[in-house]
Amino acid sequence: SVKIEKAVPERLVTNPTVLGKLRESWKIPDQKKEKVGKLWNIRFIQYVEEGNVEAAKEGLLEELKKMGLSEGNDFHMRFASAQGDLATLNSLFDSLDEQCDLIVALSTPTLQCALKKARGIPVIFTNVADAVRAGAGKSNKEHLPNVTGVLTMSDFDGMVEAVKECLPDAKRIGTLFVPAEINSVIYRDALAASAEKAGLTLESVGISSSSEIADGALSLGAKNLDAICQISDNTNNVGFAGIVQAARKEKIPLFAFVGKQVKSEGAVAGVTRDYEQAGRDAAQMVGRVMRGESPANIPFELVSKTVTLVNLKNAALFGLNIPASFLKKAKRVD
Question: pTM for this structure?
Fold first, then answer.
């Protein structure tokens, strides 16, 4: 016989999903919620009101609830939007009081304003392409001590691959961009680089406001394009309908980087970051900071979920036949 001692480990890690499927399922009591120490005053500040921001907001609030953190017990969150106006955005930060414990910043302009005016307050961002170029640090690991967050840089290589699979003879693609918006410039340059690697040429037309989208899209449509791959930025997301109208007029298949634009706004297909998941990922960071972890020790992270979408009804409007190979890996949303 063998004498057994200390057969029960000090720490037992379980998988509730697997345990629940056993013949005699186990029931593991819920763990007590970790204390956050105080009622946190959180300011949720966004630059514009558009689909990606609303999806991130929804994901963040749902994830905080799932984590056991609740409004009134663990935090009080106030929401503010600059309605796309930089002067208003600055005033929102100027009005922050000493009771503000944490800022959730949505989009690059909001993050940049927070970097100038947050005065050491913890900042969690999302819906930002490149926080380093926005001024938040030297790298995703070496950054300002009060800042961390979730990056949503688009998958440009994946998009170019999707275009070539759906349009094997494509040579020229196009997009609108906003020269004054850092995210937009980063995205345009990244799409150009991915296109060049794949043997495609990118044509881009710069605009300065949503009122110029219709004319800019018509100008883009006159450039003998095989497809439009519209990058995601604050201005063009708000006025996406004008791009759809021009693309349909010229019968140029329209690809998008935003899920909603494929699902319900007219694009044929897209390789899209999941912005609701970006909000959930940001909520996890919010929880870590509320429970005592310094943002300095939390690296910037890319959103954890990307989805390839296709809308066959929209494809039919452009006279585009989607190949079976693409349908196998894309989620249909028509």
Answer: 0.78
